Amino acid sequence: MKQISISETVMFYDTDCGGVVSNIAYLRFVERARSALFGELGMDVESMNESQLFPAVIRTEIDYLFPARLGNVIEVTATLVGVQKVRVTCEFSLVIAAGAGDEKQIAKAKQIVALVQMPSGKPRRTPEEWGSYIEE
Amino acid sequence: MKQISISETVMFYDTDCGGVVSNIAYLRFVERARSALFGELGMDVESMNESQLFPAVIRTEIDYLFPARLGNVIEVTATLVGVQKVRVTCEFSLVIAAGAGDEKQIAKAKQIVALVQMPSGKPRRTPEEWGSYIEE
Amino acid sequence: MKQISISETVMFYDTDCGGVVSNIAYLRFVERARSALFGELGMDVESMNESQLFPAVIRTEIDYLFPARLGNVIEVTATLVGVQKVRVTCEFSLVIAAGAGDEKQIAKAKQIVALVQMPSGKPRRTPEEWGSYIEE
Amino acid sequence: MKQISISETVMFYDTDCGGVVSNIAYLRFVERARSALFGELGMDVESMNESQLFPAVIRTEIDYLFPARLGNVIEVTATLVGVQKVRVTCEFSLVIAAGAGDEKQIAKAKQIVALVQMPSGKPRRTPEEWGSYIEE
Q1: I need a labelling partner for D70 at 20 to 30 A (CA). Which of A38, C98, D27, D39 fits?
Q2: How far away is chain D from the Cα of B135, in angstroms, using its nearest Cα?
Q3: What's the rounded Cα separation, in Å, for the pair D60 and C63?
Q4: What radius of gyration, in Å, describes the C-alpha atoms of chain A?
Q5: What is the largest CA-CA distance in chain A?
Q6: Structural domain harbouring A71
Q7: Each residue of C54-92: b (16+ CB within 10 Å) or e?
Q8: What tens digit of pLDDT does each residue of D68-95 get?
Protein backbone atom coordinates (compact mmCIF):
# COMPACT_ATOMS: atom_id res chain seq x y z
CA MET A 1 0.00 0.00 0.00
CA LYS A 2 1.24 3.48 -0.80
CA GLN A 3 0.46 5.88 2.01
CA ILE A 4 2.16 8.93 3.44
CA SER A 5 1.46 11.52 6.12
CA ILE A 6 2.45 15.17 6.34
CA SER A 7 1.96 17.74 9.06
CA GLU A 8 0.91 21.37 8.68
CA THR A 9 0.42 24.12 11.27
CA VAL A 10 -2.58 26.37 10.58
CA MET A 11 -1.43 29.89 9.71
CA PHE A 12 -3.43 33.16 9.65
CA TYR A 13 -3.78 32.91 5.89
CA ASP A 14 -5.52 29.53 6.31
CA THR A 15 -8.28 30.99 8.48
CA ASP A 16 -11.21 33.28 7.76
CA CYS A 17 -13.30 35.75 9.75
CA GLY A 18 -15.52 32.92 11.02
CA GLY A 19 -12.52 32.22 13.27
CA VAL A 20 -11.81 28.83 11.73
CA VAL A 21 -9.89 27.34 8.81
CA SER A 22 -11.40 28.36 5.45
CA ASN A 23 -12.95 25.54 3.42
CA ILE A 24 -10.59 26.51 0.59
CA ALA A 25 -7.41 26.23 2.68
CA TYR A 26 -8.02 22.52 3.28
CA LEU A 27 -7.37 21.98 -0.42
CA ARG A 28 -3.83 23.30 0.09
CA PHE A 29 -3.27 20.76 2.87
CA VAL A 30 -4.63 18.05 0.58
CA GLU A 31 -2.41 19.18 -2.30
CA ARG A 32 0.69 19.05 -0.13
CA ALA A 33 -0.16 15.50 0.95
CA ARG A 34 -0.95 14.49 -2.63
CA SER A 35 2.40 15.85 -3.80
CA ALA A 36 4.13 13.80 -1.10
CA LEU A 37 2.19 10.70 -2.22
CA PHE A 38 3.23 11.23 -5.85
CA GLY A 39 6.80 11.66 -4.61
CA GLU A 40 6.49 8.20 -3.04
CA LEU A 41 5.29 6.92 -6.41
CA GLY A 42 8.42 8.32 -8.09
CA MET A 43 6.96 11.62 -9.33
CA ASP A 44 8.21 14.34 -7.03
CA VAL A 45 7.33 17.98 -7.72
CA GLU A 46 10.89 18.95 -8.60
CA SER A 47 11.05 16.37 -11.40
CA MET A 48 7.57 17.40 -12.65
CA ASN A 49 9.02 20.83 -13.22
CA GLU A 50 11.46 19.24 -15.70
CA SER A 51 9.18 16.63 -17.23
CA GLN A 52 6.12 18.89 -17.48
CA LEU A 53 4.12 15.75 -16.69
CA PHE A 54 1.58 16.91 -14.13
CA PRO A 55 -1.08 15.21 -12.04
CA ALA A 56 -4.30 17.08 -12.91
CA VAL A 57 -7.12 16.84 -10.41
CA ILE A 58 -10.33 15.96 -12.24
CA ARG A 59 -12.60 15.51 -9.24
CA THR A 60 -12.50 16.48 -5.57
CA GLU A 61 -14.88 15.46 -2.78
CA ILE A 62 -14.31 16.82 0.70
CA ASP A 63 -16.30 16.55 3.90
CA TYR A 64 -15.65 19.14 6.58
CA LEU A 65 -16.27 17.37 9.87
CA PHE A 66 -14.94 19.65 12.60
CA PRO A 67 -13.54 23.20 12.51
CA ALA A 68 -9.76 23.58 12.79
CA ARG A 69 -8.26 26.77 14.21
CA LEU A 70 -5.15 28.92 14.10
CA GLY A 71 -2.13 27.03 15.42
CA ASN A 72 -3.69 23.58 15.15
CA VAL A 73 -1.28 20.97 13.81
CA ILE A 74 -3.07 19.05 11.08
CA GLU A 75 -1.82 15.63 10.06
CA VAL A 76 -2.88 14.69 6.55
CA THR A 77 -2.62 11.06 5.48
CA ALA A 78 -2.81 10.38 1.75
CA THR A 79 -3.48 6.87 0.45
CA LEU A 80 -3.47 5.56 -3.11
CA VAL A 81 -6.75 3.63 -3.28
CA GLY A 82 -7.35 3.08 -7.00
CA VAL A 83 -5.33 2.82 -10.20
CA GLN A 84 -6.92 2.80 -13.63
CA LYS A 85 -5.50 3.18 -17.13
CA VAL A 86 -5.43 6.96 -17.19
CA ARG A 87 -6.42 7.97 -13.69
CA VAL A 88 -5.74 7.26 -10.04
CA THR A 89 -7.84 7.77 -6.92
CA CYS A 90 -6.40 9.11 -3.67
CA GLU A 91 -8.04 9.37 -0.26
CA PHE A 92 -7.10 11.84 2.44
CA SER A 93 -7.76 11.90 6.16
CA LEU A 94 -7.09 15.09 8.11
CA VAL A 95 -6.77 14.87 11.89
CA ILE A 96 -5.67 17.08 14.76
CA ALA A 97 -4.35 16.03 18.14
CA ALA A 98 -7.16 16.15 20.69
CA GLY A 99 -5.21 15.71 23.94
CA ALA A 100 -4.15 12.56 25.79
CA GLY A 101 -2.80 11.07 22.57
CA ASP A 102 -6.24 11.14 20.96
CA GLU A 103 -6.88 12.35 17.45
CA LYS A 104 -9.92 14.06 16.06
CA GLN A 105 -10.76 13.75 12.37
CA ILE A 106 -11.51 17.21 11.00
CA ALA A 107 -12.00 16.38 7.33
CA LYS A 108 -11.80 13.59 4.79
CA ALA A 109 -11.37 13.93 1.06
CA LYS A 110 -11.07 11.97 -2.17
CA GLN A 111 -9.47 13.11 -5.41
CA ILE A 112 -9.34 11.58 -8.86
CA VAL A 113 -6.18 12.53 -10.69
CA ALA A 114 -5.10 12.15 -14.32
CA LEU A 115 -1.53 12.40 -15.59
CA VAL A 116 -1.33 15.13 -18.20
CA GLN A 117 1.61 16.05 -20.43
CA MET A 118 1.92 19.83 -20.67
CA PRO A 119 1.83 21.99 -22.70
CA SER A 120 -0.04 19.67 -25.08
CA GLY A 121 -2.54 18.71 -22.37
CA LYS A 122 -2.52 15.06 -23.58
CA PRO A 123 -3.38 12.38 -21.01
CA ARG A 124 -0.64 9.83 -20.25
CA ARG A 125 -0.99 6.23 -19.12
CA THR A 126 -0.58 5.49 -15.45
CA PRO A 127 2.74 3.67 -14.80
CA GLU A 128 2.07 -0.07 -14.77
CA GLU A 129 3.76 -0.73 -11.42
CA TRP A 130 1.33 1.57 -9.61
CA GLY A 131 -1.34 -1.14 -9.92
CA SER A 132 0.71 -3.35 -7.62
CA TYR A 133 0.28 -0.83 -4.78
CA ILE A 134 -3.45 -1.46 -4.63
CA GLU A 135 -4.56 -4.08 -2.18
CA GLU A 136 -6.92 -6.67 -3.55
CA MET B 1 -36.22 29.10 -8.05
CA LYS B 2 -33.27 30.99 -6.58
CA GLN B 3 -30.43 31.27 -9.04
CA ILE B 4 -27.77 33.86 -9.72
CA SER B 5 -24.78 34.23 -12.02
CA ILE B 6 -21.52 36.08 -11.52
CA SER B 7 -18.57 36.66 -13.84
CA GLU B 8 -14.87 36.44 -13.01
CA THR B 9 -11.80 37.05 -15.15
CA VAL B 10 -8.96 34.59 -14.49
CA MET B 11 -5.98 36.39 -12.91
CA PHE B 12 -2.35 35.22 -12.60
CA TYR B 13 -2.96 34.21 -8.99
CA ASP B 14 -5.70 31.82 -10.16
CA THR B 15 -3.32 29.86 -12.40
CA ASP B 16 -0.45 27.47 -11.70
CA CYS B 17 2.69 26.38 -13.51
CA GLY B 18 0.71 23.79 -15.48
CA GLY B 19 -0.44 26.87 -17.42
CA VAL B 20 -4.08 26.49 -16.37
CA VAL B 21 -6.35 27.51 -13.50
CA SER B 22 -5.42 25.76 -10.24
CA ASN B 23 -7.98 23.29 -8.90
CA ILE B 24 -8.00 25.32 -5.69
CA ALA B 25 -8.82 28.66 -7.39
CA TYR B 26 -12.15 27.27 -8.64
CA LEU B 27 -13.30 27.18 -5.03
CA ARG B 28 -12.88 30.97 -4.88
CA PHE B 29 -15.12 31.35 -7.94
CA VAL B 30 -17.65 29.03 -6.30
CA GLU B 31 -17.49 30.95 -3.01
CA ARG B 32 -18.13 34.26 -4.77
CA ALA B 33 -21.19 32.79 -6.52
CA ARG B 34 -22.41 31.20 -3.28
CA SER B 35 -22.11 34.55 -1.49
CA ALA B 36 -24.18 36.17 -4.25
CA LEU B 37 -26.79 33.40 -3.89
CA PHE B 38 -26.99 33.93 -0.12
CA GLY B 39 -27.36 37.65 -0.83
CA GLU B 40 -30.40 36.79 -2.96
CA LEU B 41 -31.73 34.80 0.00
CA GLY B 42 -31.39 37.85 2.26
CA MET B 43 -28.01 37.05 3.82
CA ASP B 44 -25.45 39.26 2.15
CA VAL B 45 -21.82 39.15 3.30
CA GLU B 46 -21.91 42.65 4.77
CA SER B 47 -24.78 41.74 7.13
CA MET B 48 -23.06 38.46 8.07
CA ASN B 49 -20.21 40.54 9.37
CA GLU B 50 -22.65 42.10 11.84
CA SER B 51 -24.78 39.07 12.64
CA GLN B 52 -21.84 36.62 12.87
CA LEU B 53 -24.26 34.10 11.35
CA PHE B 54 -22.17 32.36 8.70
CA PRO B 55 -22.86 29.73 6.05
CA ALA B 56 -20.35 26.95 6.80
CA VAL B 57 -19.53 24.60 3.96
CA ILE B 58 -19.79 21.01 5.21
CA ARG B 59 -19.25 19.21 1.90
CA THR B 60 -17.89 20.13 -1.52
CA GLU B 61 -17.91 18.06 -4.71
CA ILE B 62 -16.32 19.49 -7.82
CA ASP B 63 -15.66 18.02 -11.26
CA TYR B 64 -13.01 19.70 -13.37
CA LEU B 65 -14.14 19.22 -16.97
CA PHE B 66 -11.95 21.47 -19.11
CA PRO B 67 -8.92 23.64 -18.26
CA ALA B 68 -9.50 27.40 -17.99
CA ARG B 69 -6.65 29.81 -18.69
CA LEU B 70 -5.41 33.30 -17.84
CA GLY B 71 -7.82 35.96 -19.08
CA ASN B 72 -10.77 33.62 -19.56
CA VAL B 73 -14.04 35.08 -18.35
CA ILE B 74 -15.76 32.48 -16.22
CA GLU B 75 -19.50 32.69 -15.62
CA VAL B 76 -20.56 30.88 -12.48
CA THR B 77 -24.25 30.11 -11.97
CA ALA B 78 -25.31 29.14 -8.46
CA THR B 79 -28.67 27.47 -7.83
CA LEU B 80 -30.38 26.59 -4.55
CA VAL B 81 -31.40 22.97 -5.11
CA GLY B 82 -32.22 21.68 -1.63
CA VAL B 83 -33.40 23.03 1.71
CA GLN B 84 -33.46 20.95 4.87
CA LYS B 85 -33.90 21.84 8.53
CA VAL B 86 -30.29 22.78 9.22
CA ARG B 87 -28.62 22.65 5.82
CA VAL B 88 -29.03 23.71 2.22
CA THR B 89 -27.61 22.33 -1.01
CA CYS B 90 -26.28 24.55 -3.80
CA GLU B 91 -25.19 23.59 -7.30
CA PHE B 92 -22.73 25.50 -9.44
CA SER B 93 -22.04 25.48 -13.15
CA LEU B 94 -18.90 27.20 -14.45
CA VAL B 95 -18.72 28.05 -18.16
CA ILE B 96 -16.52 30.10 -20.46
CA ALA B 97 -17.45 31.66 -23.79
CA ALA B 98 -16.29 29.38 -26.62
CA GLY B 99 -16.78 31.65 -29.63
CA ALA B 100 -19.85 32.25 -31.81
CA GLY B 101 -22.04 32.68 -28.76
CA ASP B 102 -21.30 29.14 -27.58
CA GLU B 103 -20.41 28.24 -24.03
CA LYS B 104 -18.16 25.51 -22.76
CA GLN B 105 -18.71 24.05 -19.30
CA ILE B 106 -15.37 23.92 -17.50
CA ALA B 107 -16.50 22.67 -14.09
CA LYS B 108 -19.54 21.80 -12.03
CA ALA B 109 -19.80 21.68 -8.27
CA LYS B 110 -22.15 20.99 -5.39
CA GLN B 111 -21.88 22.27 -1.83
CA ILE B 112 -23.81 21.47 1.32
CA VAL B 113 -23.94 24.43 3.66
CA ALA B 114 -25.04 24.79 7.29
CA LEU B 115 -25.87 28.07 9.01
CA VAL B 116 -23.64 28.48 12.03
CA GLN B 117 -23.78 31.16 14.74
CA MET B 118 -20.28 32.29 15.62
CA PRO B 119 -18.42 32.41 17.93
CA SER B 120 -20.47 29.68 19.66
CA GLY B 121 -20.42 27.49 16.54
CA LYS B 122 -24.05 26.46 17.13
CA PRO B 123 -26.09 25.42 14.08
CA ARG B 124 -29.14 27.56 13.28
CA ARG B 125 -32.36 26.56 11.55
CA THR B 126 -32.72 27.38 7.88
CA PRO B 127 -35.23 30.25 7.37
CA GLU B 128 -38.66 28.72 6.64
CA GLU B 129 -39.31 30.72 3.46
CA TRP B 130 -36.25 29.21 1.77
CA GLY B 131 -38.21 25.98 1.31
CA SER B 132 -40.57 27.79 -1.07
CA TYR B 133 -37.68 28.41 -3.47
CA ILE B 134 -37.30 24.73 -4.21
CA GLU B 135 -39.25 23.44 -7.19
CA GLU B 136 -41.30 20.37 -6.57
CA MET C 1 -2.04 59.90 -17.53
CA LYS C 2 -2.90 56.21 -17.43
CA GLN C 3 -5.13 55.40 -14.50
CA ILE C 4 -7.91 52.91 -13.90
CA SER C 5 -10.12 51.86 -11.00
CA ILE C 6 -11.65 48.50 -10.18
CA SER C 7 -14.02 47.42 -7.44
CA GLU C 8 -13.88 44.26 -5.32
CA THR C 9 -16.18 42.99 -2.58
CA VAL C 10 -14.34 41.34 0.32
CA MET C 11 -15.09 37.61 0.44
CA PHE C 12 -14.56 35.12 3.29
CA TYR C 13 -11.38 33.87 1.65
CA ASP C 14 -9.95 37.41 1.83
CA THR C 15 -10.30 37.59 5.61
CA ASP C 16 -8.48 35.89 8.48
CA CYS C 17 -9.30 34.95 12.06
CA GLY C 18 -8.37 38.47 13.24
CA GLY C 19 -11.76 39.33 11.72
CA VAL C 20 -10.26 41.59 9.04
CA VAL C 21 -8.83 41.29 5.54
CA SER C 22 -5.54 39.35 5.49
CA ASN C 23 -2.44 41.36 4.56
CA ILE C 24 -1.86 38.84 1.77
CA ALA C 25 -5.32 39.27 0.20
CA TYR C 26 -4.62 42.94 -0.55
CA LEU C 27 -2.03 41.78 -3.05
CA ARG C 28 -4.81 40.06 -5.02
CA PHE C 29 -6.75 43.33 -5.15
CA VAL C 30 -3.59 45.10 -6.30
CA GLU C 31 -2.92 42.44 -8.95
CA ARG C 32 -6.43 42.78 -10.36
CA ALA C 33 -5.99 46.56 -10.63
CA ARG C 34 -2.53 46.17 -12.15
CA SER C 35 -3.91 43.76 -14.76
CA ALA C 36 -6.60 46.33 -15.63
CA LEU C 37 -3.92 49.02 -15.94
CA PHE C 38 -1.83 46.85 -18.27
CA GLY C 39 -5.00 46.21 -20.27
CA GLU C 40 -5.30 50.00 -20.69
CA LEU C 41 -1.69 50.00 -21.90
CA GLY C 42 -2.56 47.41 -24.56
CA MET C 43 -1.44 44.29 -22.68
CA ASP C 44 -4.55 42.55 -21.42
CA VAL C 45 -4.25 39.23 -19.60
CA GLU C 46 -5.89 37.24 -22.39
CA SER C 47 -3.27 38.36 -24.92
CA MET C 48 -0.45 37.68 -22.42
CA ASN C 49 -1.60 34.08 -22.41
CA GLU C 50 -0.79 33.95 -26.14
CA SER C 51 2.31 36.14 -26.19
CA GLN C 52 3.86 34.68 -23.01
CA LEU C 53 5.10 38.23 -22.37
CA PHE C 54 4.38 38.79 -18.69
CA PRO C 55 4.70 41.72 -16.31
CA ALA C 56 6.88 40.38 -13.48
CA VAL C 57 6.66 42.21 -10.17
CA ILE C 58 10.18 42.93 -8.94
CA ARG C 59 9.30 45.03 -5.89
CA THR C 60 6.18 45.64 -3.80
CA GLU C 61 5.66 48.20 -1.04
CA ILE C 62 2.34 48.28 0.75
CA ASP C 63 1.11 50.25 3.74
CA TYR C 64 -1.92 48.91 5.58
CA LEU C 65 -3.72 51.95 6.95
CA PHE C 66 -7.12 50.75 8.17
CA PRO C 67 -8.63 47.27 8.47
CA ALA C 68 -11.17 46.24 5.82
CA ARG C 69 -13.85 43.67 6.65
CA LEU C 70 -16.08 41.05 5.05
CA GLY C 71 -18.51 42.65 2.59
CA ASN C 72 -16.63 45.93 2.26
CA VAL C 73 -16.47 47.17 -1.31
CA ILE C 74 -12.88 48.14 -2.03
CA GLU C 75 -12.10 50.51 -4.87
CA VAL C 76 -8.55 50.13 -6.14
CA THR C 77 -7.10 52.87 -8.34
CA ALA C 78 -3.93 52.00 -10.25
CA THR C 79 -1.78 54.73 -11.81
CA LEU C 80 1.25 54.44 -14.06
CA VAL C 81 3.75 56.77 -12.39
CA GLY C 82 7.10 55.88 -13.94
CA VAL C 83 8.43 54.36 -17.16
CA GLN C 84 12.04 53.33 -17.60
CA LYS C 85 13.82 51.27 -20.24
CA VAL C 86 13.05 47.86 -18.77
CA ARG C 87 10.68 48.61 -15.91
CA VAL C 88 7.60 50.59 -14.98
CA THR C 89 6.34 51.84 -11.63
CA CYS C 90 2.67 51.67 -10.63
CA GLU C 91 0.95 53.17 -7.60
CA PHE C 92 -2.23 51.90 -6.01
CA SER C 93 -4.73 53.50 -3.68
CA LEU C 94 -7.34 51.30 -1.95
CA VAL C 95 -10.40 52.98 -0.46
CA ILE C 96 -13.75 51.94 0.97
CA ALA C 97 -16.94 53.99 1.16
CA ALA C 98 -17.25 55.52 4.64
CA GLY C 99 -20.83 56.85 4.52
CA ALA C 100 -22.23 60.18 3.30
CA GLY C 101 -20.23 59.93 0.10
CA ASP C 102 -16.94 59.91 2.00
CA GLU C 103 -14.11 57.53 1.30
CA LYS C 104 -11.58 56.07 3.67
CA GLN C 105 -8.16 55.02 2.40
CA ILE C 106 -7.40 51.54 3.73
CA ALA C 107 -4.07 50.88 1.99
CA LYS C 108 -1.63 52.29 -0.53
CA ALA C 109 0.93 50.38 -2.53
CA LYS C 110 3.66 50.72 -5.12
CA GLN C 111 4.98 48.06 -7.46
CA ILE C 112 7.91 47.99 -9.85
CA VAL C 113 7.25 45.72 -12.79
CA ALA C 114 9.51 44.37 -15.53
CA LEU C 115 8.31 42.86 -18.81
CA VAL C 116 9.63 39.32 -19.11
CA GLN C 117 9.42 36.97 -22.09
CA MET C 118 8.62 33.46 -20.90
CA PRO C 119 9.77 30.71 -20.93
CA SER C 120 13.25 32.20 -21.57
CA GLY C 121 12.83 34.70 -18.74
CA LYS C 122 14.53 37.44 -20.81
CA PRO C 123 13.63 41.05 -19.99
CA ARG C 124 11.95 43.04 -22.79
CA ARG C 125 12.05 46.78 -23.44
CA THR C 126 9.10 48.84 -22.30
CA PRO C 127 7.01 50.01 -25.31
CA GLU C 128 8.19 53.49 -26.30
CA GLU C 129 4.74 55.10 -26.26
CA TRP C 130 4.30 54.31 -22.57
CA GLY C 131 6.70 57.14 -21.75
CA SER C 132 4.17 59.63 -23.11
CA TYR C 133 1.70 58.61 -20.38
CA ILE C 134 3.93 60.04 -17.67
CA GLU C 135 3.25 63.60 -16.66
CA GLU C 136 6.27 65.84 -16.53
CA MET D 1 19.52 38.45 18.52
CA LYS D 2 16.22 36.78 17.71
CA GLN D 3 16.38 34.92 14.44
CA ILE D 4 14.77 31.77 13.09
CA SER D 5 14.71 29.86 9.81
CA ILE D 6 11.99 27.73 8.28
CA SER D 7 11.92 25.66 5.12
CA GLU D 8 9.11 25.40 2.56
CA THR D 9 8.82 23.34 -0.62
CA VAL D 10 7.14 25.18 -3.50
CA MET D 11 3.77 23.60 -4.32
CA PHE D 12 1.60 23.98 -7.45
CA TYR D 13 -0.61 26.47 -5.64
CA ASP D 14 2.44 28.71 -5.07
CA THR D 15 3.17 29.04 -8.79
CA ASP D 16 1.42 30.83 -11.64
CA CYS D 17 1.20 30.42 -15.40
CA GLY D 18 4.45 32.32 -15.87
CA GLY D 19 5.98 29.02 -14.65
CA VAL D 20 7.42 30.56 -11.48
CA VAL D 21 6.33 31.30 -7.92
CA SER D 22 3.62 34.00 -7.78
CA ASN D 23 4.63 37.28 -6.16
CA ILE D 24 1.73 36.79 -3.76
CA ALA D 25 2.82 33.32 -2.59
CA TYR D 26 6.07 34.74 -1.18
CA LEU D 27 3.97 36.53 1.41
CA ARG D 28 2.79 33.15 2.70
CA PHE D 29 6.41 32.03 3.12
CA VAL D 30 7.14 35.30 4.93
CA GLU D 31 4.09 34.89 7.17
CA ARG D 32 5.14 31.39 8.17
CA ALA D 33 8.61 32.64 9.10
CA ARG D 34 7.16 35.63 10.96
CA SER D 35 4.89 33.31 12.96
CA ALA D 36 7.91 31.20 13.89
CA LEU D 37 9.78 34.36 14.96
CA PHE D 38 6.86 35.47 17.15
CA GLY D 39 6.82 31.95 18.60
CA GLU D 40 10.47 32.49 19.60
CA LEU D 41 9.39 35.74 21.24
CA GLY D 42 6.80 33.88 23.31
CA MET D 43 3.75 34.53 21.12
CA ASP D 44 3.03 31.34 19.22
CA VAL D 45 0.01 31.13 16.93
CA GLU D 46 -1.81 28.64 19.13
CA SER D 47 -1.74 31.00 22.11
CA MET D 48 -2.80 33.95 19.91
CA ASN D 49 -5.93 32.01 19.17
CA GLU D 50 -6.73 32.14 22.91
CA SER D 51 -5.46 35.63 23.70
CA GLN D 52 -6.85 37.28 20.54
CA LEU D 53 -3.69 39.41 20.64
CA PHE D 54 -2.52 39.44 17.04
CA PRO D 55 0.52 40.82 15.22
CA ALA D 56 -0.97 43.07 12.51
CA VAL D 57 1.25 43.82 9.55
CA ILE D 58 1.20 47.56 8.88
CA ARG D 59 3.83 47.71 6.14
CA THR D 60 5.47 45.20 3.81
CA GLU D 61 8.40 45.74 1.45
CA ILE D 62 9.56 42.87 -0.71
CA ASP D 63 12.14 42.65 -3.47
CA TYR D 64 11.86 39.72 -5.86
CA LEU D 65 15.42 38.92 -6.94
CA PHE D 66 15.29 35.59 -8.76
CA PRO D 67 12.37 33.37 -9.80
CA ALA D 68 11.71 30.26 -7.71
CA ARG D 69 10.04 27.22 -9.26
CA LEU D 70 7.90 24.21 -8.41
CA GLY D 71 9.74 21.85 -6.04
CA ASN D 72 12.37 24.38 -4.95
CA VAL D 73 13.05 24.26 -1.23
CA ILE D 74 12.98 27.80 0.09
CA GLU D 75 14.69 28.65 3.35
CA VAL D 76 13.26 31.76 4.97
CA THR D 77 15.23 33.44 7.75
CA ALA D 78 13.35 35.96 9.87
CA THR D 79 15.21 38.42 12.11
CA LEU D 80 13.87 40.89 14.65
CA VAL D 81 15.69 44.10 13.72
CA GLY D 82 13.75 46.84 15.49
CA VAL D 83 11.56 47.23 18.59
CA GLN D 84 9.60 50.40 19.30
CA LYS D 85 6.83 51.17 21.77
CA VAL D 86 3.95 49.87 19.68
CA ARG D 87 5.63 48.25 16.70
CA VAL D 88 8.42 45.91 15.72
CA THR D 89 10.40 45.54 12.49
CA CYS D 90 11.29 42.14 11.02
CA GLU D 91 13.56 41.35 8.08
CA PHE D 92 13.35 38.25 5.93
CA SER D 93 15.82 36.61 3.59
CA LEU D 94 14.61 33.88 1.22
CA VAL D 95 17.18 31.57 -0.34
CA ILE D 96 17.23 28.35 -2.35
CA ALA D 97 20.02 25.82 -2.60
CA ALA D 98 22.01 26.43 -5.77
CA GLY D 99 24.16 23.29 -5.90
CA ALA D 100 27.55 22.53 -4.34
CA GLY D 101 26.38 23.86 -1.00
CA ASP D 102 25.79 27.33 -2.45
CA GLU D 103 22.70 29.37 -1.79
CA LYS D 104 20.95 31.84 -4.04
CA GLN D 105 18.92 34.66 -2.54
CA ILE D 106 15.56 34.80 -4.32
CA ALA D 107 13.85 37.54 -2.31
CA LYS D 108 14.25 39.80 0.70
CA ALA D 109 11.52 41.49 2.66
CA LYS D 110 10.83 43.78 5.60
CA GLN D 111 7.64 44.03 7.63
CA ILE D 112 6.52 46.43 10.32
CA VAL D 113 4.14 44.78 12.74
CA ALA D 114 1.91 46.18 15.49
CA LEU D 115 0.37 44.15 18.31
CA VAL D 116 -3.39 44.53 18.21
CA GLN D 117 -5.97 43.30 20.71
CA MET D 118 -8.98 41.90 18.88
CA PRO D 119 -11.91 42.34 18.60
CA SER D 120 -11.45 45.91 19.90
CA GLY D 121 -8.60 46.58 17.48
CA LYS D 122 -6.68 48.52 20.16
CA PRO D 123 -2.88 48.61 19.83
CA ARG D 124 -0.90 47.03 22.68
CA ARG D 125 2.58 47.90 23.95
CA THR D 126 5.44 45.77 22.78
CA PRO D 127 6.73 43.54 25.66
CA GLU D 128 9.64 45.33 27.35
CA GLU D 129 12.08 42.40 27.14
CA TRP D 130 11.89 42.39 23.33
CA GLY D 131 14.10 45.49 23.29
CA SER D 132 16.95 43.42 24.73
CA TYR D 133 16.97 41.25 21.58
CA ILE D 134 18.10 44.16 19.43
CA GLU D 135 21.83 44.51 18.96
CA GLU D 136 23.20 47.95 19.57
Answers
A1: D39
A2: 39
A3: 7
A4: 16
A5: 52
A6: 3-130
A7: bbbbbbbbbbbeebbbbbbebbbbbbbbebeeebbbbbb
A8: 999 999 999 999 999 999 999 999 999 9
Partner residue opposite C27 with nearest CB, options D19, D27, D116: D27
Do strands D73-83 and D3-9 pair parallel, antiparallel, or not at all (unpaired)? antiparallel
- ipTM confidence score: 0.95
Over 90: is that where the pLDDT of B73 sits? yes
- Global pTM reads 0.96
- The number of folded domains in chain B is 1
Contact D70 B22 (CB under 8 A): no
Inter-CA distances, B46 with A16, B54, B87, C26, C92, Å? 15, 11, 21, 18, 24
For residue B89, give how far its alpha carbon lies from the nearest alpha carbon of chain A (Å). 14
Considering only CA atoms, give the Rg of chain C. Answer: 16
Q: How many contacts (CB atoms, under 8 Å) link A and D?
A: 54
* Residues in Cβ contact with C60 at an 8 Å cutoff, skipping those fewer than 6 apart: C27, C30, C109, C110, C111, D23, D60, D61, D62
User: In chain B, pLDDT over 90 holds for what percent of residues?
Assistant: 88
The A-side interface with D (CB below 8 A) comprises 9-13, 27-28, 31-32, 35, 44-49, 54, 69-72
Per-10-residue mean pLDDT, chain A, length 136: 96 96 98 97 91 95 96 97 96 90 94 93 93 84
Cβ neighbours of B19 in D, within 8 Å: 17, 19
Residue A17 lies in a domain: yes
Residues in A touching C16 (Cβ below 8 Å): 12-13, 15-17
Q: Residue C98 gets which letter from DSSP?
A: -
Query: Residue B45's domain is classified under what CATH number?
Result: 3.10.129.10
